[in-house]
C-alpha cells in the first residue's frame, strides 16, 4: 500500500474528503517526526511505538574499492509493533 492508497482508505473509513484525509495523514506523520527529533517516543496503544535508537560507530567496507572505512555513530528511528498489531497479522 502506498501513500495515495492509504489516503483513499482513510477517506473512505473516516467519511472524509481525500484532501482532508491527506492533510490528516501528513499532520500525523509530521507530529511523529517532530517528536522523534526531540528524542521523544510516540506510543499508539494497540498499534506500536515509534522511538529513537542508537547505532554504534563501526567499521565497514567500501564495496567498490574494498577499502575499510569508519561509519559514524547515528541516531535512527525505530518501530516496535504492539500486541494488537501483532495479533492482527497472525
TrEMBL record:
Keyword DNA-binding: yes
Superkingdom of source: Bacteria
Assigned protein family: Belongs to the bacterial histone-like protein family.
GO terms under cellular component: cytosol; DnaA-HU complex; HU-DNA complex
Cited InterPro entries: Hist_DNA-bd, Histone-like_DNA-bd_CS, IHF-like_DNA-bd_dom_sf
Protein task: Histone-like DNA-binding protein which is capable of wrapping DNA to stabilize it, and thus to prevent its denaturation under extreme environmental conditions.
Pfam families: Bac_DNA_binding (PF00216)
Keywords: DNA condensation, DNA-binding
PANTHER family: DNA-BINDING PROTEIN HU (PTHR33175), DNA-BINDING PROTEIN HU-BETA (PTHR33175:SF3)
An example molecular function term from Gene Ontology annotations: DNA binding
Name assigned to this protein: DNA-binding protein HU
Amino acid at each position: 500500500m502506498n501513500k495515495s492508497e492509504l489516503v483513499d482508505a482513510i477517506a473512505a473509513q473516516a467519511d472524509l474528503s481525500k484532501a482532508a484525509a491527506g492533510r490528516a495523514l501528513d499532520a500525523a506523520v509530521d507530529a511523529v517526526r517532530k517528536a522523534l527529533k526531540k528524542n521523544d517516543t510516540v506510543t499508539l496503544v494497540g498499534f506500536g511505538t515509534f522511538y529513537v535508537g542508537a547505532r554504534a560507530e563501526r567499521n565497514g567496507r567500501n564495496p567498490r574499492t574494498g577499502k575499510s572505512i569508519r561509519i559514524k555513530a547515528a541516531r535512527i528511528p525505530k518501530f516496535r509493533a504492539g500486541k494488537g498489531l501483532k495479533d492482527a497479522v497472525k
